[in-house]
Design a protein that fits this description.
The chain is α/β, with parallel strands linked by helices and about 450 residues long. Helix content is about 20%, strand content about 35%. The protein has 8 helices and 37 strands. The strands form 5 sheets. It has a 23-stranded parallel sheet that branches. A 7-stranded mixed sheet has the order 5-4-1-6-10-7-11, with helices on both faces. It has a 3-stranded parallel sheet with strand order 30-33-36, with no helix packed on it. Bound molecules: uridine-diphosphate-N-acetylglucosamine and calcium ion. Calcium ion (CA) binds near residues 222 and 224.
Amino acid sequence: MHSDIIVLAAGKGSRMQSGQAKVLHKLAGRTLIQHVYAQAMALNPRSTTVVVGHQSEQVIKHLGEQVRYVHQETQLGTGHAVQLAVADIADDGVVLVLYGDVPLVALETLEQAVNAALAEKVGLITSVFDDPAELGRIVRDPSGAITRIVEYKDADPAQIALREINSGIMAVPTRALKTWLTQIRPNNAQGEYYLTDIIALAVADGVKIEGILAPFPEDVTGVNDRVQLAELERVFQTRQAHALMRGGVTLADPQRVDVRGTVNAGKDCFIDVNVILHGDVTLGEGVSVGAGTVIIDSIIGDHTEILPHTVIEQAVVADHCSLGPFARIRPGTQLDAGVKVGNFVEIKKSHLGQGTKAGHLAYLGDAIIGADSNVGAGTVTCNYDGVDKHQTHIGDGAFIGTNSTLVAPLEIGDGAFIAAGSTVTVPVAPTELAVGRAKQRNIKGWVRPDQRKGQ
Ligand code: UD1
Ligand code: CA
């Protein structure tokens, strides 16, 4: 049997007070709709349809052609939205309705709902809220069976007192769904076509409603404003922090690490406070990540120590390196084992061989450096001539003196020495010493400007 997924995302989201579509606001570095889309994909559906309305162009541009779109020009209600989307879906399956602004539903919960629909029932995901506010209430009969959903605005005081709520997420056999949708009417307080009305219609047809209680209320909490967005962000971050700790990572404070992507970490890593891990990050075993560090789409080898306030992006760092504090490792950088990169060193698209050190205040761009070389403080590779980028090649065991200016393209051989303060423009052969600086002149009898007056 097939499942088809419908994602509702036509609503205005006016409480976000934003020029951007609500579902494009980000949670943990990914848009709300990306979270929902990822869940949909994990269920391996036959098709995915997104119902768009307000700011539809933004949503379509963002999600691209991987899904089918249905335009709901005027938002006449959730029932109307599903009716538009289901029209082109084949009858021989089940439909799962997701909300574009409900990002944290567990996959197993969704699977339970789909399985209920595959068994010719309606799978309805519910939750129990301490304060259900204006959410739809689940009405059960004395035997405990779900009989209908009543919307807050249509509820009587006894129904308002109910604390079990409708998440809005449900799975329904497609053929029956289509029939029930033709029977719903906007005879309610809001004058809308309520998707929720199909529950009573299903019961009237003798179809059982399987209520699936989401394990946590946050799983089914929707985002209506930025306060709720921040609350869900915290929930999500706490869950990820717990997963990291259970996997053998020590966190200085689980409330002060942010994972915006996927982290694979070996055993006995330590992550200090205010670290952001973005995209795909791999940490080997025993990696230590200092406070305020940002790592984006990078691989860090075993026992590498990253000191505070280091930024690493699209880089591959081998074992036993030491980076920072305040180092910036930019895309395309590869650091071999035992490399040391100290404070205020920026490295871009460069390869540093095993054991090479750049301890302080340097810029290395488009540089290929061998093993066991030393790059002195203030060294700059002049890799850009205003039009093109050029490479600097430095061999093994070279010594680049303090404040060297290396004008690329340039070759510096194994074991070469560059005198401090040199501007190097021509190749340096292995073991040669290059001295590229003006000779110092000391002027006798020179008078300071502030002492020249009156002379
Ligand atoms: C709906 C449910 C309510 C449930 C709540 C959970 C109905 C009638 N009520 O409430 O029982 O507790 O969700 O959050 O279904 N949307 C469209 N087109 C429309 C209307 C809505 O695409 O015409 C989309 C919205 O963008 C949103 C979702 O459907 O993603 C829910 O809409 P919203 O207005 O927030 O739901 P409520 O009516 O408040
Ligand atoms: Ca809502």
